[in-house]
Amino acid sequence: MERPLIGALGALVACAALAGCAAPQPAPVQLVDQQQYVKAMQDSYSTFTWPQSRMPDLTVLAEKSGPGPDRMPSGSERVVLEITNSCAWYLDWEDARRRGDQTAVAAALKVMDEVLPKFSPEDPDGQRYARETAAKAKTGDGAQAADYVANNCDSVSWK
């Protein structure tokens, strides 16, 4: 007596082996050293929009976040710049609110609402957090932005 499940499983295995039905294998992770990391960070920096009052010191940022004597995955600089850029805009928004500069508040809110939630597509929870932060900021609630800053931005040196 043949077992239908085993027969179906055998057909699936044969399909995967012979016809290439198996899931594609992920590309191997490329590792970079400190020099490559610094170059990648410098190259990526200009792809971000920064508030005039909050531009990170890239030399210090790369030194603090890079692999040092080790190696780290290529693309790590993008994540660090996304976090740093978020810090810059949250801080700029809060500074503008304190000054009563409605033009600067609106400009920061636009970036918080339209740009920051698009960072790190591989991290849907981070994108959701950015959307929630922007939504709260639009109502004048800066608690979530302040929480982000407190947990992610202390080590950033600004020019």
Would you mind describing this structure in some detail?
By secondary structure, this protein is an all-alpha fold. Helices cover about 60% and strands about 5% of the residues. Strands 1-2 form a two-stranded antiparallel ribbon. Helix 2 packs across helix 4 (about 75-100). The radius of gyration is 22 Å and the shape is globular.
Strand content: under 5%
Q: How would you state the average pLDDT, rounded?
A: 87
Low-confidence stretches: 1-21
State the distance separating the first and last CA atoms: 77 Å
Please state the structural category.
mainly alpha
Number of strands: 2
SSE run: HEHHEHHHH
Helix content: 55-70%
Report the major sheet.
2 strands, antiparallel
Described by the principal axes of the CA atoms, the overall outline is: globular
Radius of gyration: 22 Å
Tally of contiguous helical segments: 7
Tell me the strand order in the biggest sheet: 1-2
Secondary-structure blueprint:
Elements: H1 4-19, E1 31-32, H2 34-45, H3 58-65, E2 72-73, H4 76-99, H5 102-114, H6 124-138, H7 143-152
Antiparallel strand pairs: 1-2
Helix pairs in contact: 2-3, 2-4, 4-5, 4-7
What can be said about this structure in brief?
The protein is mainly α. The chain has seven helices and two strands.
Provide key terms for this protein.
7 helices; disordered N terminus; 159 residues; 62% helix
